[in-house]
Amino acid sequence: MKDKPLSQQAYTAIKTKILTKQFGEESYTSENSLVDELGMSRTPIREALYQLQNEGLVKIIPRKGVFIQKLSLKETRDNYDLRLAIESHAIKLVRDYLTTEHFVILEKIVERQYSLLENNNYYEWIKEDERFHRFFLELLDNTVFLDLADNIRQRVYFQPDPIYRNEYYAESTKQHSQLIEQLKTKQYSQAEETLTEHILRGKRNFV
Q1: Phi-psi bin for 142: left (phi > 0), alpha (psi -120 to 50), beta?
Q2: Is residue 152 pLDDT above 60, yes or no?
Q3: pLDDT tens digits, one per residue of 20-35
Q4: Residues 53, 24, 22, 42: is their CA dihedral positive or negative?
Q5: DSSP 3-state assignment of 29?
Q6: Residue 22 has what DSSP assignment?
Q7: Does this chain's domain 6-68 share its CATH topology with 73-204?
Q8: The domain at 73-204 falls in which architecture?
Q9: What is the Cα–Cα distance from 198 to 204, expressed in whole angstroms?
Q10: pLDDT computed for residue 86 by the predictor
Q11: Sign of the dihedral defined by the CA atoms of residues 198, 205, 34, 52, in that order
């Protein structure tokens, strides 16, 4: 990571704090506090914050600070429904064109997820989860769908209670394996059911 530009290092560090709920119940931070925490100058911090603002994760209010954007409960539920519609549609369009090479890539992602869980490396697990779900959208080659799905996933990513986190992610990884096997054996109705349960499982945790 140290080989990356400072602004990218700052972006990754701040985004990690947001996605893993390291700001706790606070919805506010400041440029000054981030400078102190990350040990960087203002310029890369500011560039990172503008990038995160463009992604809808924060809102910068001059002379007030940086606010972590939170969706209402209804917005969260609606976004989960939209995510399901997009990913389900993408899989329907690409499933007949999936090759052995594609399945090898997906299986390696799942193997890595299991390995990461053994080491309680949840942030890297989340990154692999993003890779898994983006895979079908990338095959579809629809940048509108891809950008929309990325934005939704970043804003409504469910973080389970730390006590149950490993168990929750293990079940999600198991569902990834099931989805791969069902697509590989052309059990498409079962695959659709698995994807639906997989995504709406996160939605139910916001109820």
Answers
A1: beta
A2: yes
A3: 677 765 578 889 999 9
A4: positive
A5: strand
A6: T
A7: no
A8: Up-down Bundle (1.20)
A9: 11
A10: 94
A11: positive
Could you identify the residue written with the tokens 């949840």? Answer: 122
Q: Which CATH architecture has domain 6-68?
A: Orthogonal Bundle (1.10)
Say what percent of the chain tops pLDDT 90: 58
**Side-chain-facing half-sphere of 146: CA atoms under 13 Å:** 12
Map out the domains of the chain as residue ranges.
6-68, 73-204
Please name the residue ranges forming H helices in 28-164: 31-38, 42-54, 73-94, 100-118, 122-140, 143-155
Encoded tokens for 83: 């995510």
3-state secondary structure of 65: strand
Give dist(CA 199, CA 157) in Å, integer: 10
pLDDT, one tens digit per residue, over 45-96 is: 999 999 999 888 889 998 888 998 877 788 888 889 999 999 999 999 999 9
In this structure, what token pair is assigned to residue 198? 């997989």
DSSP 73-107: HHHHHHHHHHHHHHHHHHHHHHGGG--HHHHHHHH
Tokens of 80: 């989960």
9 has a pLDDT exceeding 80: yes
Assign 2 a pLDDT band (cuts: 50, 70, 90).
low
Q: What's the rounded Cα separation, in Å, for the pair 203 and 16?
A: 21
